[in-house]
Amino acid sequence: MKKRIREPREKDRNEKQGKPGDFTASRATVASGRSASGDLALQKANYALSVHDPKLLPPPGAPEIAFAGRSNAGKSSAINTLTGRRRLAFVSKTPGRTQLINFFSLGSGAFLVDLPGYGYADAPESVRKHWEMLVGEYIASRDSLAAVVVVMDARHPLTPLDLQLLAWLREAGRATHVLLTKSDKLSKQAAQVTLSKARKELSTVCPGATVQLFSSLKGEGIDEANSTLSRLAFRKNKAPPKGE
Fold this sequence. Notes:
7 helices, seven-stranded mixed β-sheet, alpha/beta, Rossmann fold, single chain
């Protein structure tokens, strides 16, 4: 079994948690649990549990929207901004060290899943290998995974490691949405040029992927992200047509 890697803060948090959310919710339960506005009810996010080994993942059920991204790309800040919570996702001072899959239950019956960051240069080899095992297996085999949000710094998008992740997602047939974070660091014209280039490259490396600009600092792109993720989440558990 792989050596367990986790932060002391997360260990304390895990030991204090009660019963996790209902991961085995039926399709009907999930559909009826949608918020009145028809979105994911991201602002009702609550911590459910953390997993360090794909063998310990809970039984699949309610749709899961997973967030992945390079360390320092702004993934934790994006999650906190979308959920309206300052510290729902922990912004680590030592990026690349947190090697857990963290689940957060949403008011809609779905789950937000925070995948460990990647690409931190000083991370030990054991940490990098653990990330590949943990995230790779989750992406490849998780039945309830509705979509993956790939978080990229708008100033440095589509790095080699981003492209590796996108290749995994394409091979697994996963719905993909890209958040180009920290867009406030670019001029409006530069941001639009970056968005256009990213959309063009994604059409080749990950066909079907969608992309948008996002700024946690200025709160820009929240409505667009919420709308896209809600559509992807509830499409996952949409009842099949009669006769199928």
